[in-house]
Design a protein that fits this description.
The complex is a heterodimer of chains A (314) and B (144). Chain A is 68% helix and 4% strand. By secondary structure, chain A is mainly α. Chain B contains seven helices and two strands, in the order H-H-H-H-E-E-H-H-H. Classes of the chains: A mainly alpha (314), B mainly alpha (144). The interface between A and B is medium-sized, with 19 and 17 residues.
């Protein structure tokens, strides 16, 4: 399979996936600007496409329809500038490799997530915070199964949700002790919003795509923007239930204060992750109580999916 | 346990890095390289009035502490620094930090982190004020 000029094909993949990603990302920005879609939920939904198209959809399409290779960007460039010479089309034999790699990385990410979750549950202890009523009410409002809470001593400032059919919310012990009931409710609602939106699944897929395009800095940028959009979207969904943005802002501020005083936070501070946190807190402080709608952009979304599918042919 | 630790830290103070005159002498030696006591005395005399024997005592003390080394050429003693200025500063800072971290790990680390994340602290304080302001605003609106 690799006897002929495989390096040239890899080069072709690197270039084409970079161009596809850049085009789709640009299209996302244009659609959001033209459609005046300022809703983070919409941004989160759109931003998965620039990652998934070059990493998975494009190789699948080229594998199923080999004749599409004629539309490849690299072919167009070669036709326009014959003096540049020819590179080997990656679609001819790299597509199955890329799809296999995608599946393997996906399985690895799932297994890793499962291992971390199981370890967390094994080392956690139950909470005696008497949140049963709050949890039942939140679960009913989100229309999800009633979640369990585990208190983590291993990660004293964490908060995340996992579980397939039944949500399990892990909360760091130190952070939990600092939260008052309203802040705790806001945090629980935020985590349930992640579960309701299936953010974990989408982020696993995004992480897998990002791993396949590790060489492309734009892929990492898109992943980070996607992650930030999903956090904001979960904030919005949680606020529709709790209607208390200041409680969530206060909980996030306490989280940041704890992180700032821990040794492990030095590197994170340098990595400017705190800027995202600051943006979120400021956004919540200035929340205007006009909750964005998420179903009005269906037309834009459909059109955009079609456009990106066309782009994925190249 | 605690009094013992404090006593240990105070022992750090009994071997201070350098006194004011010692610092001045060392600055001259680091600048000049190899010097005699007369050279140091002449240099310092340009800035302040002090006895030759005072400079001699300081140089001998520095030699005794191992900060200076001595070379005899004929009947003249030459002195030079054992470490360069940057090496000396580095080793003293290391000693001081090691002692602090050993005896007062948490406060020392907390202080270092606070110094490193000064910008974060400023942001956090600004956000605290913003949040308090919004809460007061919300309370006023609820009261009305």
């Amino acid at each position: 399979m690799f006897e002929t000029n495989w390096l040239s094909a890899v080069f072709n993949y690197v270039v084409e996936s970079a161009i596809e990603l850049a085009l789709v990302f640009l299209a996302v920005k244009v659609v959001l600007r033209v459609g005046k879609l300022h809703d983070p939920a919409a941004l989160g939904r759109f931003l998965l496409l620039p990652l998934i198209i070059p990493a998975l959809l494009s190789p699948i399409l080229h594998l199923v329809f080999p004749q599409l290779s004629h539309f490849a960007i690299i072919v167009q460039i070669e036709n326009a500038f014959p003096a540049l010479g020819r590179v080997r089309l990656y679609e001819e034999f790299l597509s199955p490799v890329l799809i296999m790699a995608f599946l393997l990385i996906l399985i690895y990410n799932l297994a890793w997530g499962l291992a971390i979750s199981l370890r967390e549950v094994r080392h956690a202890f139950g909470t005696d915070l008497n949140d049963k009523t709050t949890l039942t009410r939140l679960a009913r409002k989100f229309d999800v199964a009633e979640p369990s809470i585990v208190v983590s001593e291993r990660h004293p400032t964490c908060a995340y949700v996992f579980g397939w059919f039944h949500p399990v919310i892990a909360l760091g012990k130190d952070w939990l002790l600092q939260l008052d009931p309203k802040e705790r409710e806001a945090v629980l609602a935020h985590e349930l919003a992640h579960y309701k939106r299936s953010d974990n699944w989408q982020m696993i897929i995004a992480r897998t795509c990002c791993a396949l395009m590790f060489f492309n800095p734009l892929a990492h940028h898109v992943y980070r923007e996607l992650s930030e959009a999903r956090e904001k979207a979960a904030d919005d969904l949680a606020l529709r239930v709790t209607r208390n943005p200041l409680a969530l802002a206060s909980a996030l501020l306490k989280f940041w204060q704890m992180e700032a005083s821990s040794i492990a936070s030095i590197s994170e501070g340098f990595a400017t992750r705190d800027n995202d946190l600051e943006n979120r807190i400021r956004r919540l402080c200035d929340y205007d109580d006009v909750f964005p709608t998420t179903n009005a952009n269906g037309l834009y979304y459909s059109l955009f999916v079609m456009l990106t599918l066309v782009l994925s042919l190249v | 346990m605690r009094p013992k630790r404090i006593a240990k830290l105070s022992s750090l103070g009994s071997r201070p890095t350098l006194g004011p005159l010692e610092s001045q002498v060392m600055e001259v030696i680091w600048k000049q390289g190899e010097v005699t006591i007369r050279d140091v005395y002449d240099f310092i005399r340009q800035q302040r009035d002090l006895a030759y024997t005072t400079v001699m005592t300081v140089v001998h003390n520095l030699h005794r502490k191992g900060i200076l080394k001595q070379r005899l050429d004929g009947k003249t003693h030459y002195y030079m620094a054992v470490q360069s200025r940057s090496q000396f500063v580095e080793s003293k800072v290391g000693e001081l930090l090691d002692a602090l971290l050993e005896d007062f790990t948490e406060p020392a680390l907390a202080h270092l982190i606070n110094r490193l994340s000064k910008t974060d602290n400023e942001k956090l304080i600004a956000l605290e004020h913003l949040l308090a302001e919004r809460r007061a605003q919300a309370k006023r609106e609820n009261d009305v």
